[in-house]
Amino acid sequence: MDELIVKKINSTMVLQLNREKVLNALNLNMVRIISSEILNWKNDDSISGVLLRGSGDKSFCAGGDIVSVYHKRNISESNLSYDFFREEYLLNYEISKFGKPWISLLNGISMGGGLGLSVHGSHRILSEKTIAAMPETAIGLFPDVGGSYFLSRMKGSLGVYLALTGKTIDGKDSMFANIGTHLLNNSLVEEFVNKLLKLKNYSHEEVDLILDEISLNEKLNSNLVKELELINRHYNKGNIHEIFSSLEKDQSEWCVKQLNILNKKSPTSMGVTTRQLNLAKELSLKKCLSMEFRICQAMMQRHDFYEGVRANLVDKDRKPKWNPKNVYELSNDAIEEHFKNLGERELFKDE
Fold first, then answer.
1. pTM here?
2. What pLDDT is attached to residue 291?
3. Are the CB atoms for 54 and 106 separated by under 8 Å?
4. Is the C or the N end of the chain the one with fewer CB within 10 Å?
């Protein structure tokens, strides 16, 4: 069975992630299929845009297939921990430069690598079935696939909050966080798809016109709005130590809940993520991806990533043993070790 179904309907390339049993998790083969064709689609005048969707009704894409990276850890001839992330990040960058409509249907679980496939495109369609998150700190990783770029540009400190806690958010919250561009009732998603696929030629503006007719225009009432003042007060800090200190000084129920959530995450991941997002505010997407690749390759050489994947995705005992055990044992030097130039192994050779 094909892991990625690719077909052309009139002037639209339809890409269907086809790994329903693993929530359409993105693997290296799928990345390579899209990467091999994206420049052809960009330069082919008979193609107006790309429509990206997941198989089934549960998931768009639950993220990258990092379990495969975990299992290849001790195979000396395997370069998967280098190749997968490198090729995935380069694809994220090409999507951002695509120029034509890149339309993603996030009507289900949309996390990590799934957001990397969609957020850098022009149209991200949400519904009441959308479940979005960047949950990487729970597995000893960090928000990658351009996460440093789009998270650092969210309202106030919302991006830091979502990155550190890994909080799952619905369609309305995802619109508030600028993950999506349009919110539709799930019952109308196929109506949009049918209208799009009938077109023999179209532009961004024509896609917008179709979506504007059926999008939900009422006030969103995002739950995140209610938390934003607290989020900005406690997550607008220079480093992870200051965030913990701020939460600990406040005895409110909300802050106690935050600490309970954060104390389950990898201290190293949280420290690196906070530093990453502070730096990303001034960086282009290309430079963000370059920084992320440095972080990623550093984490592939360390304990927490493999321990986090083992505990949460392989053995599923949910009891990772982090090293260091908490943020108070995490030094600034240990954080900075993740940002070193990779020399010949840099993501972009011109930097």
1. 0.96
2. 98
3. no
4. N
